[in-house]
Each structure stands twice: as structure tokens, then as C-alpha cells.
Design a protein that fits this description.
The complex is a heterodimer of chains A (338) and B (345).
Chain A lengths: L1 H13 L13 H24 L6 H26 L8 H18 L2 H24 L5 H20 L4 E2 L5 H7 L1 E2 L2 E2 H19 L1 H11 L1 H6 L4 H27 L1 E2 L7 H11 L11 H20 L4 H27 L1
Antiparallel strand pairs in A: 1-4, 2-3
Helix pairs in contact in A: 2-13, 2-14, 3-8, 3-11, 3-12, 3-13, 4-5, 4-6, 4-11, 5-6, 5-11, 7-11, 8-9, 9-11, 12-13, 12-14
Chain B lengths: L14 H12 L3 H17 L2 H4 L1 H22 L8 H18 L2 H26 L3 H20 L4 E2 L3 H7 L9 H19 L1 H11 L1 H6 L4 H27 L1 E2 L5 H13 L11 H20 L4 H17 L2 H23 L1
Antiparallel strand pairs in B: 1-2
Helix pairs in contact in B: 2-14, 4-9, 4-12, 4-13, 4-14, 5-6, 5-7, 5-12, 6-7, 6-12, 8-12, 9-10, 10-12, 13-14, 13-15
The chains are: A mainly alpha (338), B mainly alpha (345).
Chain lengths: 338, 345
């Protein structure tokens, strides 16, 4: 805080005429919209440690991260679609489930390499279908991905017979799901690795720069000579890859997979992204913010479970959280425009 | 009302063919009619039972179409109400729970009141706070689903007055069950409201160009409230009908309705950005989907395949939207232009 005030004071000293850009007092709502997630996560963690029995144990904290990993990975990837201003990708529900089922079923029938290859191809087909419809046909992303979800889940249920598939008890998938790197389960390691990779892609590569500039002003990006359709396809591609890895991790947890295992991933991932401070209006946001949002949402649901709140109220809480976070974002945006 | 040719809006085509061509160009139901014709032909050839058992088909159309009708009112304004699926579930649960304790009339009133409250919250976030309606109603979809679970205590609620439920499923007037009659009454009401009443006509203006509508003195925010109330109340009615007809209210109900009703409204030619569309289009869309579903069910097709069919139709409908085709044509022609230019060099 002190550092920021100092920079602002410097700016005022440099250019006293431009009072608007360097208004020394930022508004409360603007502050909450921008930095609120840090404050709220802090408050939540503090409250949980002080008042909730069984929260502050290493076992529970590792467990939180272990369980947050699949949704977290999805959310990290979906951040790209949200930043392009295309709301969200609902079809991650179908994609993650498809990846999980394919991993176990195909590796049972053939081997792990073929399973990876098939899952990869399926992810690319999903990304192309969503990306072309949204990027080139300019169709509404919510409707398109709703349609691809149903097509994907229908096909998956049809091909897998709708039943659960089990991997061999001592296979590599089961080993991955249960083993740890030091005190951290592999799932949490994958979550951190994906965060690092996607942060690099979004902030340090040409593609990431184009994603962000498309989110800020899509027509300017197009007029600057960029093929904007490809950018949208790229954003969906990142989401699909993330959903694929999330499906792998989820399947490895229990060494089983079923077509409805990722139900609710779409909304929970969106909640994490929005709570983290990535704007649904596009252009504003980052991958580490989403990780923080994931941490917030999963600690919140962990606390709700620990204090024995019913499933219904948990859903109410997450839904209200989405609306609340978007309201704060919209109000903050209005303040900054004034 | 002078007959000045200068202020003739639209096309100046004369003669029978010219006039009918402009009439066709102004309508938005084109794709819906084409799809309807294709499905009707396919059904007549392979499953004529769909027409002989028209009562079943009409029931299915009413099931899909009711929510879609309300949704269309919101889509005309360029907004979207994703929360209808959960409004349906919550209303059903409330209607049955209250009816079990008191009587059916109070249950229905309570459920309708819930529908109004939900739509007021939606409209508040969209019109006053200024959140995108996709995201606001997405949050509501989630929150209300949880609410339905809480009220229902996480299990389906049985309607104690089973006689009423059985009577509700029987034909009331000729072959028409109450569900089908309510569906057609609501269709006529919304159709008259949107095409003949000033407030309803203004929906199209709000959807077409919000700033222009505002400048022309249309109370835009009030119209958005009206639209959401229509969609919320209609979803409530659908929830009540479902619960009474099945004599039980399931907090998980409505998730398949969401896809089907969106599909019906979009196939019906309603422009998602607002300003263009019609209730009749939605009716045709719902009729096509209803016939298709009944035909698939009669031929013993599995539920996953039916989902694939409806998902596929929704995808095709949203891609063949005139604005989508224009967008892809635009990007294709710039690409060709680029290739031509580079070849010329």
C-alpha cells in the first residue's frame, strides 16, 4: 500500500495537470474490485484457522489442494477464454469427463500412450468446434458450448455405455493418483505447474499478448492485421488442454471414471475465475489471480463442509459468490470510467 | 398519414412478387420453417405414429415450448435468462411443499410469487447494476438450484393431493390436456403483447438499439424488468404444471429443459443480439423439436442419441444465424482478398 501511494505521489509531482489519471485517493469499490481477493482470502483463512475445528491441520490443507486440483486446472485454462471476452466454456464438463473415461478405458484396452493420443485428439476436436463457431461464426459462446456439451456427453454416454470404468489397481494411473512428491500430492504439483506454464504463455508470449489485446478491443486487434478467429480458437485450445489434464487428474484420484464425473466444473471454475478478479467483460485478468480464486473457493467450500452446511446451501453460496463478484467488477468498472 | 412515397420505409418493391419478397425478407422464421418441413417429412415417412398420437406430440411440444415462449420475450431485448431452468425447479418444489401444508391455490400463488421475485432480482442486476445478463442469470441458475435443494430437503417432494395430479393429466376440452391449453393461452397472450401492445413492441426497439430506444423516450429499464418478469413467471408456470402432472417436484428437474427451450427459441429465428424475432418462430421451433423427440422416442432411440440430436440442431441453428453467416463470409472474403493480393504481387 505504502509503495503505491508513494508512486502516485511521484506521479502527481511529475504531472500536476493530469489530476484524473493520478487521483491520489482510489475509491473503495475500485479497490475492492482490484485487490479485494487478497483481502478476502486473508480474512477467510484467518477466520477458518481461528474458528473452524479441523481446518488448520496439514492433512486437511493438503486435502483441500488435492481436491481443488481438477477444478483449478480447468479454471486456469478457462481464464484464457474469459479474457478474450467470450464469457466461458461450458463444455469443460464434457471434455474433462471424456479425457478421464478415455484415459482409463483405452489404457485398459490398449496402452497408456494410445490413451493419451486419443484424449489429445478429442480435446483438439472440442477446441476446434467451439473455437470455429465462436471465432469465425461469431456465435454466442454460452450457446455454442452448451450445444457441444450435450453432443459430447451424449457421445460419451453412448460409447461408454454410461457405466463406470475402472483401472487396474496397481497400474500407473492408480500410482499417480495416490503418490506424493514430498508432502504434496501429484495433483497439487500439476496445478502449480499448469499455473506457471499458463502465466508464462499469457504474459511472455506473442499469443498471450494477442489474447489480452483481443479482450480489450477485438476490432482494433483485427484492424491491426491479426487473424482474430485464430486467437479465439487458441483460447479454446488452451481451455481444452487444461480440461484434458483435469480429467486425467480426476480419473487418477479414484482410478475410476464415469461420464458425469465433472458435473458442476463449469460453474465452479467460472466462480473461481471471477472471484479471482478476472473480468467477464474481457481484457482484464491473470492466471495467478485465478489460482487465488481457486484457493478462495475451495477453502470456502471446505469450511462449509467442515461446519456441516448442506449441499443445497453450498450451491446457493457459490451462485451468490458469482453474482457478488460480478457486481463488484461492474461497479468498479463504472467508478473507473467516471 | 399522408401518402408520401418518400417516407416509405423498407423496400419499394411493387407487384405481387415484389411485395411477397419483401414480406419474406422481413420475417425471421425462415430457418424454423425449413427445419419444420424437413422434420415433418422425415416423421411422416418413418414414424406416422407421431401424428396419430398427436396428443402425446402436443404434450411434448407444450413441455419444450412453454419455457421457450417466456425466454423469447427476454431474447427480443438482446438479453438472456439462463436461470429459467432453476426457476422451474424452485417453483415446482415451492408449489408442492406449500400445497401439502395448505391447499393447491395457495401453493400456486406462492410459486408464482417466487417466480416474480427471482425475475426482479435478475432484472435488478441486469438493468440497475448493469451486469451482463448471461453471467448474472448464470449465478442465479446456480444459487436457485441450491435453493430448490434446500426447500425440498434434497429429495423429491410428493404431492399429497394425487387426485388433482391425475385429473390434471386428463384431457379437459376435446383432446386437450390442461398443459396444452395453458401453453396455447400463454402463446396467444405473449404473441398479442409483443406484436400488438405498445410496451411489447418496444421490446424490439430496446433489443435493436438500446441507446436509440432510450433517446426516443422508451423506459428501457422498465421494459427489461417486464421482460424478465414474463420469462420468470412463465418458467414458474411450467414448473407448477410439471410438478402437478407428475404429482412430485424434483429439485433436479429442468436441466434438460434449458437446452431444449434455448434450441426452440434460437431455431425459431430469434436474433440473440436482440431486436429481431418472433413468438411464432419459437412456436415453430418448439413444434419441430417436439416432433423430433417424440419420433426418436417412439423408434426406441436411446436418450444419449436424442441429446446428441438436439445439441447438434442447436449448434447448427446458432451457426446458421444470418449474422453468423455474414461474419464468416466477411472473414472468408478478406482471406481470399489477401490471397488474391499476394498472388497479384
Amino acid at each position: 500500500m505504502a509503495k503505491e501511494t508513494f508512486t502516485e505521489a511521484m506521479a502527481v509531482a511529475k504531472d500536476p495537470q493530469d489530476s484524473k489519471a493520478t487521483k491520489p485517493k482510489t475509491s473503495f469499490i475500485g479497490f475492492i474490485a482490484d485487490k479485494g481477493i487478497f483481502v478476502f482470502t486473508g480474512i477467510l483463512v484467518l477466520t477458518a484457522v481461528l474458528f473452524v475445528d479441523g481446518f488448520a491441520s496439514l492433512q486437511n490443507v493438503t486435502d483441500v489442494f488435492h481436491r481443488a486440483a481438477p477444478i483449478g486446472i480447468v479454471a486456469l485454462g478457462m481464464t484464457f477464454v474469459v479474457i478474450t471476452g467470450n464469457y466461458l466454456d461450458l463444455s469443460v464438463v464434457a471434455q474433462a469427463a471424456a479425457a478421464g473415461v478415455i484415459l482409463i478405458a483405452v489404457s485398459n484396452a490398449y496402452n497408456l500412450i494410445i490413451a493419451f493420443a486419443v484424449a489429445f485428439v478429442v480435446a483438439i476436436i472440442f477446441a476446434l468446434a467451439n473455437g470455429i463457431a465462436v471465432g469465425y461464426f461469431k456465435a454466442n459462446a454460452v450457446i455454442v458450448t452448451l450445444a457441444t456439451t450435450y453432443i459430447g456427453l451424449g457421445l460419451l454416454r453412448l460409447l461408454s455405455g454410461g457405466s463406470q470404468v475402472f483401472g487396474p489397481a496397481d497400474g500407473p494411473i492408480a500410482t499417480f493418483g495416490t503418490s506424493k512428491l514430498g508432502p504434496f500430492p501429484y495433483s497439487a504439483v500439476v496445478l502449480v505447474a499448469v499455473t506457471l506454464i499458463l502465466t508464462f504463455v499469457l504474459t511472455r508470449t506473442n499469443f498471450g499478448f494477442l489474447i489480452r489485446s483481443f479482450g480489450v478491443n477485438s476490432s482494433a486487434t483485427r484492424l491491426a492485421g491479426t487473424n482474430t478467429g485464430l486467437i479465439v480458437i487458441g483460447a479454446f485450445m488452451v481451455t481444452s488442454m487444461a480440461a484434458m489434464f483435469a480429467g486425467f487428474v480426476l480419473a487418477a484420484f479414484s482410478n475410476t471414471a464415469v461420464s458425469n464425473m465433472a458435473t458442476g466444473f463449469d460453474f465452479q471454475a467460472l466462480a473461481a475465475i471471477i472471484v479471482g478478479g478476472t473480468s467477464v467483460f474481457g481484457g482484464k485478468g491473470s492466471v495467478p489471480r485465478t489460482l487465488l480464486g481457486v484457493v478462495f473457493v475451495s477453502i470456502l467450500s471446505n469450511v462449509l463442509v467442515l461446519v456441516q452446511v448442506s449441499y443445497g446451501f453450498q450451491q446457493v453460496a457459490i451462485g451468490s459468490l458469482i453474482v457478488l463478484a460480478v457486481t463488484v467488477d461492474a461497479l468498479g468498472r463504472r467508478v473507473s470510467k467516471k | 398519414m399522408t401518402n408520401q412515397t418518400v417516407i416509405k420505409v423498407g423496400s419499394t418493391a411493387t407487384g405481387f412478387w415484389g411485395k411477397s419478397r419483401t414480406l419474406l425478407a422481413r420475417r425471421t422464421e425462415g430457418r424454423a420453417v425449413v427445419l419444420f418441413a424437413i422434420i415433418a417429412t422425415f416423421v411422416t415417412v418413418s414414424q406416422p405414429l407421431v401424428f396419430t398420437a398427436y396428443q402425446v406430440t402436443l404434450g411434448r411440444i407444450a413441455l419444450i415450448g412453454l419455457v421457450a415462449l417466456g425466454l423469447t420475450a427476454v431474447i427480443l431485448m438482446g438479453e438472456l435468462d439462463l436461470s429459467v431452468a432453476s426457476t422451474l425447479a424452485v417453483s415446482g418444489v415451492i408449489a408442492v411443499t406449500v400445497a401439502n401444508q395448505t391447499n393447491m391455490a395457495i401453493g400456486v400463488l406462492a410459486a408464482l410469487a417466487a417466480g416474480v421475485v427471482v425475475s426482479l432480482i435478475n432484472a435488478f442486476f441486469v438493468a440497475i447494476v448493469g451486469i451482463n445478463s448471461f453471467i448474472a442469470t448464470l449465478g442465479m441458475l446456480f444459487a436457485l438450484r441450491g435453493m430448490a435443494f434446500v426447500i425440498a430437503d434434497e429429495a423429491p417432494v410428493k404431492l399429497q393431493n394425487t387426485d388433482l395430479g391425475i385429473a390434471f393429466g386428463q384431457p379437459l376440452l376435446g383432446p386437450l390436456t390442461p398443459r396444452i391449453m395453458i401453453f396455447f393461452l400463454i402463446f396467444i397472450a405473449i404473441q398479442i403483447f409483443v406484436s400488438r401492445v405498445k410496451a411489447g413492441r418496444e421490446f424490439l426497439a430496446v433489443g435493436g438499439n438500446r441507446q436509440a430506444a432510450y433517446d426516443a423516450g422508451i423506459p428501457v429499464k422498465r421494459r427489461i424488468f417486464t421482460g424478465f418478469i414474463i420469462s420468470g413467471v412463465v418458467a414458474s408456470i411450467a414448473g407448477i404444471i410439471n410438478a402437478v402432472e407428475r404429482t412430485s417436484a424434483d429439485p433436479t428437474s429442468g436441466s434438460t429443459v434449458l437446452l431444449a427451450s434455448f434450441a426452440a427459441a434460437i431455431i425459431g429465428g430469434n436474433y440473440l443480439k436482440g431486436g429481431k424475432g418472433s413468438i411464432i418462430g419459437t412456436l415453430i421451433g418448439a413444434a419441430s423439436l417436439g416432433m423430433l423427440q417424440v419420433a426418436l422416442t417412439i423408434s426406441g432411440v436411446q436418450i444419449p442419441i436424442q441429446e446428441i440430436f438436439i445439441g447438434g440442431i442447436l449448434l447448427i441453428a446458432v451457426i446458421t444465424d444470418p449474422s453468423s453467416l455474414r461474419a464468416v463470409w466477411g472473414s472468408l472474403s478478406t482471406t481470399f482478398q489477401g490471397i488474391k493480393n499476394s498472388l497479384a504481387k
